[in-house]
Amino acid sequence: MKKIIKYKAVTILMGCLLVWQGLMAQKVAVKDGTIQVDGKELAKIVKIKDKENFGLTSTYEIYALNGEKLIIAAIATDFAENSNNNGSYYYRLSFLTNQQQAIFRLSKLGPEKSLATLIGQSGIIVNNQIDPKMFTEFLAKKSVNPPIAMEYKLVERNHLGTPYIKGKQIYQGLTLIGEFKDISTRPEYDTYEFSTAMGLVVARVNFTGGINAQNFVVTTYKDKVTTRINIPTQGKYSISQQPGVDRNEMALVRIADWLAKNWYL
User: Fold this and answer.
1) Which of 5, 164, 166, 219 is geometrically suited to a Cys-Cys bond with 204, CB 3.0 to 4.6 A?
2) Using one digit for the tens of pLDDT, what is the confidence trace for 92-129?
3) Which of 12-16, 47-51, 104-108, 244-248 has the lowest mean pLDDT?
4) Which of 74, 107, 142 is the last residue of a domain?
5) Do 47 and 94 have their domain in common?
6) Are residues 210 and 256 in the same domain?
7) Does a structural domain hold residue 96?
8) Which domain holds residue 77?
9) Which of 142, 177, 201 is the last residue of a domain?
10) Does residue 138 sit in the same domain as residue 193?
11) Residue 194 above 90 pLDDT?
């Protein structure tokens, strides 16, 4: 009996040692802009200070060793701070080759190292590409869904008319129903926030393709939902050269129409 107990104890100890060794094997470091895992180069990381908040935060870009841009990590300011966890930022990671976005926590004390560790230990980068299976597991295990639900009242107006834009304001009929703000930080895609006439931000939209974009990633804060929507164009548009007209105005009109029809704006 004693031999059996001793054998089980040794087996458990060996199992713990194997787990410990596995964890220790994932040693991640950042040296000269390169993410290294166990001393082996995995990817390049570039830090870009955010001008809109005087460089207090930064955006990070992760490149494969062959130079292909794989990930953009930008601070997500559209979520409420967690009073029980004030040691981290919410960051929105855009996985360019997968065309997906997700929210993660990164340490405020060292977001660059925190990001490098997150990606380095995930195992998602394999042979300069993002491995689909590892990526799915990574999202399931590490991404977060911060609470952003809110309640608000829509402006009373006639809902039959199609919304239109004047400057940065959105009207339906003669009624001001909202506003939009260009918060784009990267040339690869455009990002806008939509708010009520009282200034409450109710949606965030990301898209590529400029004024002729048809696919949009929309986050609506009322119901905490991020979804990909398709809004076909009625033709091909050219960027307006008129002063005071947003470069993506026709795309923004279609987004505003979708938000109004779905009772977000």
Assistant:
1) 219
2) 999 998 888 899 999 989 999 999 999 999 999 999 99
3) 12-16
4) 142
5) yes
6) yes
7) yes
8) 28-142
9) 142
10) no
11) yes
Same domain, 122 and 186: no
Position 183 in a domain:
yes
Cα(84)–Cα(65) distance, rounded to whole angstroms? 38
pLDDT value for 22: 46
Amino acid code (one letter) for 85: N
Number of domains in the chain: 2
Is the four-CA dihedral 208, 76, 46, 38 of positive or negative sign?
A: negative
